[in-house]
């Protein structure tokens, strides 16, 4: 046995002398960022004669190899099989391929194949290869914060669960997302799955269930804005207006509409009883995108307390290895205040179509409010009790709507506000007085009377 070992070594030496040796390795690379210039370096050692060097881009899990560079020593030429920015720089003991601006699509494995002639014959080629995985990172492209399940109404007597959703798109790998409140990092309780219903957020550690016994007597008090009116001996704006508010002749020279000061009722809700700070729940999902990036949706959920959360600043921040500093998006939870109402036409006449529109607010409102229109003391022109939306349309207004008052209620989970406006309807010279119906259509009553007269005449003749 001891005699065989020197023979084995001698055989290997002879084999190496005949075939030659070849070692190939690719220098490792750290993750790169989209847009960076990258150079792939293939190092090889050999004592044989060079035959060829081929670079491959491997796709589809290794089933497809795309040739991106070739050096053929037989013809002493090199050829590129990729775009013109793929370029060989050096070929001595190292072959390089340079990518001036990497893209997400460049992410993946690459292989360097080197072939040499064996020393026994030029017909045989000895091959060796090395491989590397190019990890291309992409920073997030956009970040935004929205409120889930909005627009939603304001609840004065029951706590509501509230959810902020932070959407981060375009990152690879998936970024780390976290929330802050008023600049302070929020301690969260992670959830493996998003709660199916709102009750899933209730936790004894956060707050007690809000039964009526948990409310103080503020729910029986009127808002401060109403108390101010009563102290002055006036009528609160939320009550029905006086009946028979048909304007006299002097109103013909007054503004066409009367804007009633708003009534803010956001202070009318009870003070929720919170024994401890609310617990914030956190859940996130990763959604793969076709370009290789990931969309992250992070949700922050808690039991809303309008008295504390109104005017609170929430920010969603993102950390990513491709970013030098965090990205962020901010929202401030604000109840609606001071709706700006516009009525067109400004001088409505009998038979006109009147549009009453909420143009905006005195402040930035978040989340998006919902709008409800009602007619004080009566139903709307179409017979409905209320109308949802930013705009109320009154088709062919009749003279009977002169002096009618309309209430716009704007509300979000942080609070509610009422704004009133009064409709003044002027006479239409094209429509004689008393010839329009309740829908503003002329001659309807005359048609009904004529039809009734014909029916009575026919009945009398038959009898």
What features would you describe in this structure?
This protein is 10% helix and 40% strand. By secondary structure, it is mainly beta. The strands form seven sheets. The chain has a five-stranded antiparallel sheet with strand order 6-5-4-9-10, with no helix packed on it. The radius of gyration is 39 Å and the shape is elongated. Residues 9-15, 80-92, 202-256, 265-272 and 440-444 have low confidence and may be disordered.
Task: Provide a short characterization of the protein structure.
The chain is mainly beta and 463 residues long. It has four helices and 28 strands. A five-stranded antiparallel sheet has the order 6-5-4-9-10, with no helix packed on it.
Secondary structure topology:
Elements: H1 4-19, E1 22-26, E2 32-33, E3 38-46, E4 49-59, E5 64-72, E6 77-80, E7 87-91, E8 94-99, E9 108-117, E10 125-134, E11 136-137, E12 142-147, E13 160-171, E14 176-181, E15 184-185, E16 188-190, H2 224-231, E17 257-264, E18 280-288, E19 294-304, H3 306-309, E20 313-319, E21 327-332, E22 340-344, E23 354-360, E24 370-375, E25 387-388, E26 391-394, E27 405-412, E28 415-423, H4 444-462
Parallel strand pairs: 2-11, 16-18
Antiparallel strand pairs: 1-3, 3-8, 4-5, 4-9, 5-6, 7-8, 9-10, 12-13, 13-19, 14-15, 14-20, 17-28, 18-19, 20-21, 22-23, 23-26, 24-25, 24-27, 27-28
């Amino acid at each position: 046995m001891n005699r065989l070992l020197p023979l084995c070594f001698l055989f290997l030496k002879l084999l190496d002398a005949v075939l030659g040796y070849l070692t190939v390795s690719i220098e490792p690379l750290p993750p790169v960022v989209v847009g960076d210039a990258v150079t792939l370096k293939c190092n090889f050692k050999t004592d044989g004669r060079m035959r060829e060097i081929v670079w491959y881009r491997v796709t589809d899990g290794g089933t497809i190899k795309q040739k991106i560079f070739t050096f053929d020593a037989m013809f002493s030429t090199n050829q590129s099989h990729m775009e013109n920015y793929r370029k060989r720089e050096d070929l001595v003991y190292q072959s390089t391929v340079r990518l001036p601006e990497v893209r997400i699509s460049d992410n993946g494995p690459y292989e360097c194949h080197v072939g040499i002639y064996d020393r026994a014959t030029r017909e045989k080629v000895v091959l060796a290869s090395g491989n590397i995985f190019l990890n291309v990172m992409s920073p997030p492209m956009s970040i935004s914060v929205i409120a889930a399940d909005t627009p939603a109404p304001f609840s004065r007597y029951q706590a509501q669960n509230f959810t902020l959703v932070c959407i981060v798109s375009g990152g690879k790998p998936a970024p780390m997302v976290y929330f802050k409140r008023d600049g302070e990092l929020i301690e969260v309780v992670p959830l493996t799955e998003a709660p199916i219903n709102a009750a899933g957020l209730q936790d004894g550690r956060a707050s007690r269930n809000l039964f009526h016994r948990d409310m103080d007597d503020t729910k029986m008090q009127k808002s401060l804005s109403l108390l101010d009116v009563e102290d002055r001996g006036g009528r609160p704006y939320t009550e029905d207006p006086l009946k028979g508010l048909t304007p006299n002749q002097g109103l013909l020279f007054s503004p066409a509409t009367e804007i009633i000061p708003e009534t803010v009722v956001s202070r009318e809700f009870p003070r929720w009883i919170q024994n401890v700070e609310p617990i914030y729940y956190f859940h996130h999902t990763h959604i793969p995108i076709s370009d290789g990036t990931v969309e992250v949706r992070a949700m922050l959920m808690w039991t809303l307390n309008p008295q504390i959360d109104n005017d609170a600043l929430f920010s969603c921040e993102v950390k990513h290895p491709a970013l030098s500093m965090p990205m962020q998006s901010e929202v401030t939870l604000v109840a609606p205040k001071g709706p700006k109402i516009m009525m067109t036409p400004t001088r409505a006449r009998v038979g006109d179509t009147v549009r009453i529109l909420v143009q905006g607010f005195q402040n930035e409102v978040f989340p998006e409010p919902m709008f409800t229109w009602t007619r004080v003391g009566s139903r709307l022109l179409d017979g409905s009790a209320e109308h949802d939306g930013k705009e109320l349309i009154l088709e062919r207004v009749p003279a009977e709507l002169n002096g009618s008052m309309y209430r716009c209620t704007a509300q979000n989970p942080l609070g509610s506000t009422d704004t009133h406006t009064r409709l003044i309807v002027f006479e239409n010279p094209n429509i004689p007085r008393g010839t329009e119906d309740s829908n503003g259509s002329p001659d309807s009553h005359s048609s009904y009377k004529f039809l009734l007269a014909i029916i009575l005449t026919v009945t009398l003749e038959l009898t």
